[in-house]
Design a protein that fits this description.
The protein is mainly β.
Length: 562
């Protein structure tokens, strides 16, 4: 907002959820607790609000409305600063002698910098097409605007390692990579300290109590019938609702704009700017990220759905529905399909136990790479353990119950002991942080032992009984792998905290996957007696021949059958 108009507006708080993607809308009743870690939506008054929806790695979106004491609509992004895909960027200097930065709309900033999300920041004084910023502005380690005392002393600072802090200081911060400046602090240690009664559109930013989550919020205003705006106290309530513990005003008025990448490299505006179109501003805060990585096997065409796929040992050929075939491997090889090159498509690949070699076909299916990792007797368990969208080559060694990852977390080889002889390795994202967690299923007692990467702690859940086959998958589409088993004796998929689905018979091979691209794993089986695919919600179809191996299950579980 242009500081020549003495209205102190906006504050940025993070929460991310696309209106068209939101699930159940709920009205939250009066609560006296507040969010302390950014995980929940909590409010001190009744608010109609959507839940968070993940849209990129480490980025979630949410929205809400309230009609008391006037109509209000709020839009929020929640940024997980510990997610390795997340990086920040503030508007850079224009290098000119007059004006520190060029005026630029928030959508244009996102587009030109190839960001995934952005919001306006810093009050400013404009002069033609350039502006001088009020308060600190640091872009990639370069000081663009100096810190100042008084109203505009608030600083939101980020180090290169993504440690964030919200402080009030008249001094330029040291060791900071990106920073933006704001005005009044309105939420302090969970206490609402907002006092300015002026009702306007607002841009507010906050941090969760542990500073892990950045909360960016825009509340629309000046639009009767849509949203009339908020004062500082009400803006602080929205920050609290979306998960902030500390927060401040960063701008407002016609400048308030919150945007995301629309999935095709262009900006999508999440709120309704009061001018009708986004205003050119002096500074923006942007977020780099990556598309969500689907922790499922079988999307060979990058169409966000699983294809019917079989591997034929007799001729070492991958067959992908409806008509693709690629030769790779030789007798004794184990198919180990996964996205090894982060292009969104599953690569055809095999692991050769006799020599421990991984043979991975390129995206064009014209050549393969060879890497040695593992020894005879290992079980291959490829997955994206470090959250970069690329599956790491990894093995589980039953002889010592040890996991061996090649170039795993932080790009170095690593090993970890988890499990015992007889356990089945079942890696998956069980905590929703976009990292595959190391996990084993123990057939003797039906226990799932998972090391949650988000906390690095062991989680034990009993789900299943002797004779069950573990079939983990995201059956409810919430981005978290569910514990589930297939019971051959009854042909049932028994999914924790969800309804049981009966779809198969004794000799069927469970083959769950997201076959319709709706983000949910469908229960499915492949019938060896007639090569028939029986998929929940779809008509039965034949693909393959009786001796084929269906590839919807991870290799460790397929070893039950082949």
């Amino acid at each position: 907002m242009n500081v020549l108009k003495p209205v102190f507006l906006g504050s940025i708080a993070a929460a991310f959820c696309i209106i068209t993607s939101c699930k159940t809308i709920e009205t939250e009743e009066l609560k006296k607790t507040i969010a302390v870690n950014g995980d929940d939506l909590i409010q001190t008054t009744a608010i109609t609000s959507s839940g968070y929806v993940r849209i990129f790695k480490g980025i979630e979106y949410a929205s809400g409305s309230d009609d008391q004491p006037r109509l209000q609509r709020a839009f929020a992004l929640k940024i997980d600063l510990k997610n390795p895909a997340i990086k920040m960027l503030s508007t850079p200097s224009n290098g000119a002698t007059i004006g520190e930065t060029n005026l630029q709309t928030t959508p244009s900033f996102l587009d030109t910098q190839n960001l995934k999300a952005a919001v306006n920041t810093n009050f400013f004084t404009a002069s033609g097409t350039t502006a001088d910023n009020r308060g600190v502005l640091i872009s990639n380690g370069t000081i663009v605007s100096n810190a100042e005392s008084g109203t505009f002393s608030t600083q939101l600072n980020f180090t290169t390692s993504m440690v964030a802090s919200l402080v009030s200081s008249a001094m330029n911060p040291i060791g900071i990579h990106n920073a933006v400046g704001g005005a009044e602090i309105i939420l302090q240690n969970g206490v609402n300290v907002g006092t300015n009664p002026d009702i306007q559109p607002r841009t507010v930013i906050g941090l969760s109590q542990d500073n892990r989550y950045l909360i960016m919020v825009v509340i629309d205003g000046r639009q009767p019938g849509w949203s009339e705006g908020v004062n500082h106290e009400e803006a602080a309530k929205w920050l609290t609702h979306f998960g902030a513990y500390n927060g401040a005003i960063f701008d407002g008025g016609g400048s308030s704009t919150l945007v995301r990448d629309n999935g095709s490299g262009s900006a999508s505006i999440l709120n309704r700017p009061s001018d009708g179109t986004p205003r050119a501003v002096s500074a923006n805060l942007g977020v780099y990220s990556l598309p969500l990585y689907k922790h499922v096997i079988g999307d060979y065409n990058n169409n966000l759905s699983v294809e019917k796929v079989v591997y034929r040992n007799s001729n070492n050929t991958f067959y992908v529905s409806p008509s693709s075939s690629v030769i790779l491997g030789r007798n004794g090889d184990i198919p180990v399909v996964a996205d090894f090159d982060n292009d969104g498509s599953t690569n055809r690949a095999v692991w050769r136990p006799s020599v421990g070699n991984w043979y991975v076909m390129n995206a064009a299916n014209t050549a393969y790479s060879t890497i040695e990792w593992g020894v005879n007797g290992d079980i291959p368990v490829p997955a994206d353990y470090n959250g970069d969208g690329t599956a790491e080559r990894a093995v589980f060694r039953p002889s010592n119950a040890t996991w061996y990852l090649k170039n795993g977390v932080n790009g170095v080889n690593s090993s970890l002991q988890l499990g015992q002889s007889g356990d089945i390795p079942i890696p998956g994202d069980y905590d929703g942080d976009d990292h595959a967690d190391k996990a084993v299923y123990r057939p003797s007692n039906g226990n799932w032992y998972v090391i949650l990467s988000i906390t690095n702690t062991l989680n034990t859940v009993q789900w299943g009984q002797s004779g069950d086959i573990p079939v983990p998958g995201d059956y409810d589409g919430n981005g978290i792998v569910d514990r589930a088993v297939y019971r051959p004796s009854t042909g049932q998929f028994i999914i924790r905290n969800q309804p049981t689905v009966t779809i198969g018979q004794t000799d069927d091979i469970p083959s769950p996957g997201d076959y319709d691209g709706d983000g949910k794993t469908e229960c499915a089986v492949w019938r060896p007696s007639n090569a028939t695919w029986i998929i929940e919600g779809q008509s039965n179809s034949v693909y393959g021949i009786v001796s084929d191996i269906p590839l919807s299950l991870p290799s460790a579980i397929r070893m039950f059958f082949f």
